[in-house]
Amino acid sequence: MKHALVVGGTGMLAGVSLWLVNQGYQVSVIGRNPNRMESLAGKTEDKNAITPVLVDYSNEVLLKENVRSIIKENGPIQLVIAWIHSYAERSIDIILQEVSKQNDKWRLYHVLGSSKNLNEIKKKISTPDTCLYRQIQLGFILENDNSRWLTNEEISQGVIDSIQNDRLIYTVGTIEPWGKRP
User: Fold this and answer.
1) Are 176 and 147 in contact (CB under 8 A)?
2) Through-space distance between the first and last CA atoms of the chain, rounded to whole angstroms
3) Long-range pairs for 57-65 at CB < 8 Å and ≥24 separation?
4) Which pTM does this prediction carry?
5) Domain count across the chain
6) Which domain holds residue 35?
7) Phi and psi at residue 121, to the nearest 5°
8) φ/ψ of residue 63, rounded to 5
9) 61 near 90, Cβ under 8 Å?
């Protein structure tokens, strides 16, 4: 069975987690909130298709232990979708290290905020040969003369579109003109 890891998969990426289940993946979901994790699992027909990983990914030791555990339980990870806040920047490195211990090729879709410099982030990340690294930048929506942030549904759909089209860099919404952001 195909195995995917979604970091932040109970919030704005919940739609991605559910879509992956429908695509036949065993989905390991990292989240901190047990109620949101239970709610996510309740939206699937097969409750066993989601492996809940209740951990604060800023705790590097626990993150490493949990990633190792889900790989042991569910097999090699082919796909990682990671929304990681800037206060836990080392978390992406830990995920890269642990998932890359397997010999299989895999993809990492790194979800980033609208103000992030994608080139600078890519320079900071050391991706092994087995990892195909992709970036998804979240922007905003322009409606008439107003702007608004993306909804969780729009974010999930944009991430799904990026996965389906396997784009190196994908922007959900727009980031231009920067002065029009909400």
Assistant:
1) no
2) 42
3) 57/7, 57/30, 57/84, 57/88, 57/91, 58/85, 58/87, 58/88, 58/91, 60/90, 60/91, 60/94, 63/30, 63/91, 63/94, 63/95, 64/94, 64/97, 64/98
4) 0.94
5) 1
6) 2-180
7) -65, -45
8) -60, -50
9) no
Tokens 């890269």 locate to 96
> What string of pLDDT tens digits covers the 182 residues of the chain?
899 999 999 999 999 999 999 999 999 999 999 999 999 999 998 889 999 999 999 899 999 999 999 999 999 999 999 999 877 878 999 999 999 998 789 999 999 999 888 888 888 888 999 999 999 999 999 998 899 999 999 999 999 999 999 999 999 999 999 898 99
Give the span between the Cα atoms of 62 and 59, in whole angstroms. 6
Element (H, E) at 56: none
| Confidence at residue 74, expressed as pLDDT on a 0 to 100 scale | 95
137: exposed, middle or buried (C-beta count within 10 Å: 0-12, 13-18, 19+)? buried
Q: Which two tokens stand for residue 29?
A: 């979901």
**Residue 93 and residue 64 in contact, taking contact as beta carbons nearer than 8 Å:** no
Distance CA 20, CA 109 (A): 13
Say which CATH number the domain at 25 has.
3.40.50.720
Task: Please report the pLDDT score of residue 88 as a whole number.
Answer: 80
Strand order in 50-54's β-sheet?
Answer: 50-54, 25-31, 2-7, 79-83, 106-112, 131-138, 169-172
